Structure formats: structure tokens, C-alpha cells
Amino acid sequence: MTTNDEKQEVKEGIVKRSLKQMIVPILAIVTALAIGAIIIMVTSGSLAEGAGKVVDGYGGMLYGAFLKPNGLLNTLVATTPLILLGLAVAIPFRTGLFNIGANGQFLIGALVGTIAGIYLPLPPVIHAIVVMACGFLGGALWGFIPGILRARLGAHEVINTIMLNFIAVGIVNYAVREVFRDPNTTSVRTYYIQESAYLMRLSGRFNLGFFIAVLVAILIFYYLFKTTWGFSLRTTGQNPNAAKYAGIRPTWEYVIAMMLGGGLAGLAGIVEVQGLDRFLTEGNTSLGFTAIAVSLLGLNHPLGIIPAAFVFGALRTGGDYLQIRAGLSVHIVAILQALILLFVAAPTIVRWYLDKFKIQVSAGEETTISQGWGG
Amino acid sequence: MNETPVLEARGLTKRFPGVLANDAVDLTLNKGEILALLGENGAGKTTLMNMLYGLYKPDEGEILLNGKPIVMNSPNDAIDAGIGMVHQHFMLVPVMTVTENVMMGDEETRGILSRIPLLGRLDRQEVAQEIEELSNQYGLTINPNDTIKDLPVGIQQRAEIIKALYRKADILILDEPTAVLTPQEVDELFEIIHELTDQGVSIIFITHKLKEVLTNADRIAVLHRGRLVGTTTPDEATEASLAEMMVGRSVILEVPKEASKPGGEVLQVRDLFVSDDRHQPTVNGITLEVREGEILGIAGVQGNGQRELVEGLTGLRHIDSGSVHINGVETTKFRPRHITELGVAHIPEDREKHGLVMSYSIADNFVLNQYYLPPYAKGPMLQQDTIDEHGRELVEKYDVRTPSIVTHAGNLSGGNKQKVIIARELSRDVKLVIANQPTRGVDVGSIEFIHNQIIEQRKNGQAVLLISAELDEIMSLSDRIAVMYEGRIVKTLPAGEATREEIGLLMAGSEA
Amino acid sequence: MNIEFIADLIRAALIAATPIALGSFGGLFSERSGIVNIAIEGMMLTSAMVGAFVAASTGSLFLGLVLGLTSAGLMAALHALVSIRFKTDQIISGTVINFLALGLTGHIYQVYLADLPDNWPGFSTFPQIPIPVLSEIPFIGKAFFNHQPLVYITIILAIVIHFVLFNTPWGLRMRAVGEHPKAADTVGINVYFTRYANVIIGGLLAGLGGIWLTLEFVGQFSINMTAGRGFIALAALIFGRWTPFGAYGAALLFGFFGAVALRGQSTSGAAAELWQILPYALTIVVAAISRPIPPAAVGKPYEVE
Known about the structure:
The structure holds three protein chains of three kinds. Chain A has helices spanning 3-42, 47-67, 71-94, 102-119, 126-153, 157-179, 209-226, 228-238, 240-245, 250-277, 287-297, 302-326, 331-345, 347-356; strands at 201-203, 206-207. Chain A is mainly α. In chain A, strands 1-2 form a two-stranded antiparallel sheet. In chain B, 32% of the residues lie in helices and 26% in strands. Chain B has a six-stranded mixed beta sheet with strand order 6-9-10-3-11-12, with helices on both faces.
């Protein structure tokens, strides 16, 4: 067959395959919403009342996330960190590692970046870029630790990253409360970062951060699929034995993947600071866990993570309206997130009823997530 | 003696997708007898035994215990019937003691709590005592309180045997019991086996080693490609006759080739020692060389160190001692990439594990070990168009049957998967080709193609190291043949001088 | 630093160790049979809330205990189902449980409990039980022998679990299935049943840890009140090398750090934070240096051929 024919067929193949691969994620969302509705109805006074709450509640979420003025922009603001954190989880997944430490990497990155933002005397734009780089480096350091422990000692990254999450909270809280605390206010926070480090606001809270996140996602797409470095990473994740045969060194790839992932999480952290509050408070984040769902929903693919992050961003933003419109608690969002994660990670459950309708879902480059503590 | 056989198989057949593992096999085992089941890799021995132990259900045929038909749906049924199995890969929990392993699933308890199922106090003393009694009765010296992982392999095996005896087995199936033992441990094992049969236990042992069989068996059954070739006794058989039954009289696929005109040495291996994953020495001092324009074929039953040898040569496994030189460069400590870059092609034994990434496209698999080099990459950027073009060329030249070059490698047939690897490795500019089981699981048409490719390499002056368990393949392709047994080269001879029988004997450990 | 202070510290450590130890016992049953369990946190949170909810509505602490434990058991059953039957990655399954627990408890709290008046009718915590005679001993009595019931029960559980794990057929089979499921299968042990049963038992134990939080310690429920104790429990389990005494010892150590942190809070901020981080940092260091070996087959789904 001629080259042109084959190119056409290749393109069609990719489109067809991408569409097929979207079936499971979409079904996961639909199923989760359905079960969420059931839970709401069951915990209401009566079924009728419950049904009403579902309509009001979901409708409220839709309103809050999209329809109301600034709704969409608020959703994009919530989407921004999830894109970067989703990437932070996806890259290690693709290398066969489980990065459950994005929370800690996020915090440390935010801290290091904030310090750079408060104290470095640099001109605008350059300062902002340097601050972002510092955030990346902070997170990369926090990813390096479990990465090197896994590479050199075979110590499983899940338990180490869980521990590092808590250590990060302690460090950041201490730093915010004792070391960099702004004495001129009763609230517990650091000094403001200098204006030269701000990420420009465009409308309300919507700021440049979103575009940076999307840009990074596109760059990571190129990195993973168009460069030799990305090829090594992915091959290590798909088949470590073949990777060794191909001359790749899996242990080396583990360290790189964890540093890159950590760095992206750290970037997410500092971008939040630069674009929104412009200072750092104590406290914690669970966005790193949400990121796991984002990554899986996005099929661990940088371009898929953008819409997946959007879905969860919409859930976050719309979640407030569950209370306002239907008197439901915002915790429903956590339940929905859990259910989406469940159905997207256990596609067998979803495939079970797909099989009934004889719909074939192609496997593609499935990520073999590391199993257990043995690695 | 016309006693009912204690165990009998009639017409046992078992099919797996694409493979007829056992074809109407008849087998009888008499009481107190040692029956040896002989055959090459893939002859169907383990499948047959798994049916006798309830792990597989026969598709056709029946099994009779003491003359009565019996259906076994699980190992539990087999255990109840008095059949015990000692697997080739031990079913022992390394961190537990002998006693715990033996009583697992059939525990003795004592004390008040015994009334509650599963919560009584484990009576290790009682079991240890029984183990000691069995141990004395059958000469299986073992300390019940030792932890399995601290024990040498030979003693671990005794724990497996005791596990079966503890459950009152009077029929024992031993799957390749001597594969992992030292010669001394082998002698000890056979002493135990004789002790067992003297006391009425009936034994089937699976092996590919002729000497053991002739020295120890009462009767011998030979399987070849899933069928029972024949049964005989040590009195009637000789190593030569057994070897003939094992390797069969199949037609040699003759590949026309010119006489070889070997040039300089390309691969030089001296006194190589390599260990396996369990740190047991598996390559025990190999010395060989391969020259330009020649094919050295290493014949041998799988499991005699070939895998570790190849992995050592290609940098995938650490070499304990000895040296490897390729074109004068010492590569003993080199990493795989370095060795590949020196001009070495490696066709791995396990194509799905080492040779391909199933979820990658064929085009990407074609550049698996070259993706970082120009023209497939410019600096760090992959040149996908070049890679795809290259893929198209190779698909055509090597006749890989595939819908397109973006098809995942996992969707190809076995033969075509192998062709992808062959194409990748042999289309490069290489000096040395290491081909390990290159036609395993490949259809006949592809086999011919692959053989022609290998001959072509030789014609062009490459050096080829061919490792194969298929005697036909070795005999038809090689210029010189080296036979590997238990980690050593037992003999090297020019192909013209070798006969099937002699090679078969050497492969099975006999000295011709 | 006088003896009164030390006795006080020991007392606080024993109390703080209780939920951690219970959580790690829960993890132990699951992991020893081969299923990774990072959902201890979720199971604790669930039983904490359900226990408080039931106790507040019915006035019966006992009912709260029973139903609280049941809810944790159900969460564990879900984890087992998803991991064993659907062979989902066990860490993801654990994350789902944690999220689900957070969402469900928060939602139910908001809908039903938040509006209850502060004094939560009909619900006071488990009483203190002084041990006769021994509790009279000065200082030591207060430290060791005058506690609420779960503190004692936890110590007893450590002993019982040790016995079950190493000296009963149940424990032997559990460990076999976690180390080498194929070997267990070939002698007729039902791998799937063993795993389901032990994961659920683990859920009940973790649930007991949650019950401690609401029915013994605080006396009411608040959002996300477990605050990471489930993860400290996981660390204690690994630190203690998957043994009950080791886990209890680690829990005691971590509890001690927590108690010191609390007392140090008033003196200097740095000290408090440091003590709080210490359990986690220690676990990383110890795990890196001494490499505790988990059950060999943990995390790998099992296929019966």
C-alpha cells in the first residue's frame, strides 16, 4: 500500500483508538454520578425529596462550574494545579512507579518558591520565572529522596512518599509559623511575595497559571512521546526487562521520573501561590490524592490529563453550590471523586457490562502500576 | 506378577490453545516400582503429571487408582487418593520452618482451644516428631526446626518429599528432581528413593538424564512431542536407544549451505562462570570461540546454563569470573548498550520478556535498541517519520505479516513477533549474532525463513553463536557443534562428524 | 523533669499508642495475608463516625461500638472485593476507600450531626477502669493501671494476635497465603477465602481504633478527625516488621513522640514540630537501613490456574 494510504490509515487508527479509549473514563464519570445520586437520595428524608436534591444539587454544580458569570473561569483556576499534579503522578506511573507523594512535593515546592519570591531582588518576569524554577526544584528534591531510595535500595516509593508527605506538612507549618511569619497580621501566614514574582491576574482570580499549566502539559507530551528521554522512561514502565535489553538503565529512569514528577508537583504548589494568595499559609492539601484520579481518568497521558483535570476542577468549583442550592454537603464531591477513581481504576467493573454490549475497548499502552511493597 | 497397577493412565489427552500437549498417553505404575518418565523439553511430561495430581483435567481419557477409575478436581483429591507431588519449583514457604511447611493445611493442634476450628494451639512438637519418624524410616535426614531458606536445595527437596509422606502418600511424583542437585545430593536422593520403594511406595520420576534412568529405574517410559513413544526396562535399553526415542527420527530440515570459510576470531570466551538468580553457579567454566563466517551451535536441553551464558555474554547478567572478548575488546564488565554498540546482535530466548515491548508499535520495536542513534533521533528528538519509514522497509524485506507498522507488537503471531526481532537484529551492521532458541514456538514457514536469514549472516562473514534445544536445528545449521550439559561444554566437534545419536547422548549427560 | 512529669508522659504515651496500635493490627491482618492496606485511615474514620452517630442517637455506647466496627468491616470488605475479585491495584483501592470514607463521613456528619447541640445527648465516653490495688501505687499506678478500657484491650490484643499469628492454624495459613500463595493452594488452602477473611478482620481492628477516637477519647466526632493516625499506624506496622509486638512497640514510641510534642508546644515551636515529624522520618531511615521484609506475595493479585 502506498505511503499516503498508510498515513491516512494510521491517522484514522489513532482517532478510532482514542475514541475507544475514552469510553471507560466517560462511563466511569457517568456511573459515579449515578451512584452519587443514589447516595443523596438514600440519605435524604424521602426518595422524592432526595430526587429533588439530586436535581438541585447537580444542577447547582453545573451552574457553579460553568453557567454562572465567572463560573468557567473559576473552574479553570481550580483546574490549574490539577493539571500539573496529574502530570506529577502520570510520569512516574508511566515508568512503573506510584507517586503518592504529590502532596508533600507540592508543599515543599510552594515553600521554596515562596522564600525565593519574598527575598530575591529580581526584576519582574524574570523573578516570576526564577520563583517557578525554585518551586520546581523544591518539589524535585522531595521527589528525589524516594526516587533514589527506590533505585539504590529497592525501598518502595509508596511508603516513603506517604511519610514524606507528613514530614513536608511539619516543615512547611514550622516555616510558616516560626521562620517566615509576617508579624503584621493576626492570620498565620508568610510575608507576601514581592510583586515582581506575581503571576498576572487576568480576570478575578483567573491568572496566567492556567496557561502555564497547559503549556507544561504540552511540553511533557513532547517529552514523553517525541524524545529519546521519554522513550527510555516509557519503555522502563512497559517492560523493564526489554528496557535493560535495549540498553536502558531502569534504576536511573526511576530517579529521573520521581524528580520530574516531584518538580511538577512543586511547580503546581508555587504557581498557586504566585497566582492566587501571593503568600503561604500553614495547613495541608489533598490535591495530590485527587491527582491520582486525574491521572487515571486522563489515561496517564499528558493531553488526556487536561480534560480530566477540568472535570475534577469543575467538581471542586461546583461543589460549593451543592450546599447553596440543595442543602447538601460539599463532601459529596469527595464521594464522587472516590467513585470516579474506583471505576476508572477497576475497568473490569465497567468492562463487565461493556462486554454485555460487545463493545471492544482496546488496551493501548496500559500502565503496569507497581505492585505491593516489593516493587 | 499380575497385580493391578497402583496407578494407570489410559488415553490421556490434554489440549491448550494451539498445542496438543498430551496425545492419548497410556501409562502404568506398579506397586513399589520406580518408573522413569523421559523426554525433552516440551515433550509433555509435566502436563501429564499435572493431570495425575489433579492440577489439570484431562480432555480425554481416564485415570485408574488400583483398578478403579478416579476423577480428581484438585490437588486435594489427589492427596486424598494418596498421590503426592514434588514440584520442580518447590512449593515451600522460605521464611517458615520445615515443620510449618509440612503441616500447612493439615495442622495438628492441642490444648483447650482445639475445639474451635483453626484456633487451636499448633502442635509443632507432635509434627516434628512425626517428621523425625518419617525421616528415620526412609533415610531422609532433616531437622524439622530449620528454616527453609537457610537450607541447601537438596535438603529443601527432602522437606517437599516429607510433606507428601506426612499426608500418607504412597504414590510419589517427582518432577525433574535432580535438575537442581549436586552429584552428591543426587546419590543421596536415589538412596532415599530406593528406601521408599522398598517399603512399598511407588514412584514416578521425570527426567531428561539417561544415566540416572538406567541406574535407578525399574521401568522407563519415553514421551516425544506429547505421545508415548514406548516403554522399556534398563535391561533392554541402552543410552543410545533411549536417546533415539527421546529425540525422535524426525526429518531434518535441510538448509542448503556452502562449506564454511571461517576467518578471524570474533567471540572469545575463557573460563566463564556465571550464577543464576539463586546465586547457584550455573555456567561452570565455559571456554569457546566463534569465528567470522561460521556458525557455532550449542546443543543442550534447556536448563543447563544456556540462559545464564547468553545473559552473561550480552551484559544482562553479572559474570562471576572468566573473560569475554569481542573483536579483541574485553566486554566482561560491559553494559548491554555498550555491547550492542560493538556490533552484537542478540535474539533473546524469551521474545516477550526481553525482545519486544508488546504495547509498542512494530515500528518502535524495530528501533528498540537504536532509538537514540541517528537517523532515528536528532539529538534528543525522535524522528518518527524516519522510524516509520524504516519500519516499512523491514516489514517488506522480512515479510512480517501485519496490518500496518503501527500495529502493536502484541497483536502479532508468534512467528511474526520473532521475525520482528530477527529483522531488527540482523538488518543492522553487526559482527556477532547470538541467537537463543530462535525458532521456538514459530510456525514452519517462519522457521525456514529464519534459518535462511541465519545462513545469510554466515555467508556475509558474520560470526553466529546459535543456542537451541532443537537438535534438528543445530545439526542443519551449525558448522561446529558444542554440547552443553550442567554448565559445561562436554564436547565440541565439527558438524560433519556428529550424529544425532551421539549428540543426543551428550545432551543427556552420557559420555560417548 | 521530675517523676510526676515522667509518669504523666508514660500515661499519655500509652493512651496515644492505642489507636495507632489498633490501626497497625488492622493493617497486619491484611498485609500478612497478601493485601496491601493503606486504607487504615479510612476505616478508622468510618467507624469513628458511625460509632459516634449511633451512640448519640441511641444512647448506647455498646451499640455504637458494634455498628461502628461493622461499618469499618464493610469498608474493608469493599477493599477486599476490589483488590481480590477485580484485581485492581491495591494502593488505588486503598486511596478510594480513604476518599470515600472522608466524603461519606463528612456528608453524614453535615446532614445529621452538625445540628445536634454541643453536649451530644446520651453519649459520654467509656469510663476509666482503675485496676484494684495496682492503681494505688504512687506514680506507676497512674501511669499504667488507671486507664479506659481500650488501652488495656489493645495490650491484650497484642498478645492474642501474636498467639494467633504464630501458634494457630489460622495464623499459619494466613502467613502461607501472604508469602507463597501457590504453595498454599497446592495443599488445599483456599487463598481467596483466607484473604477476604483476614482483610475484614483487619478492618474490624482498625475500626476499633476509630471507636477509641470518638467513644473513648474525645466524646464526639469532627470532620477528618483521624488526622493521619491511620498512616502513622501503617508506619508503625512497617517499623514493627509486621509483628504485633513490634507494631505495639513502634506505636508506643510514636505515641511517646506525640506526647512530648504536645507538651513541648508551649515551650518552643520548633521542638513540637520536630517531635511530630520524628515518627515519619525515623520510619524512612529505619526502612532504608534495615530493610524490613514484607510478606513476599503482598500486593500481587493471585490467579488460581
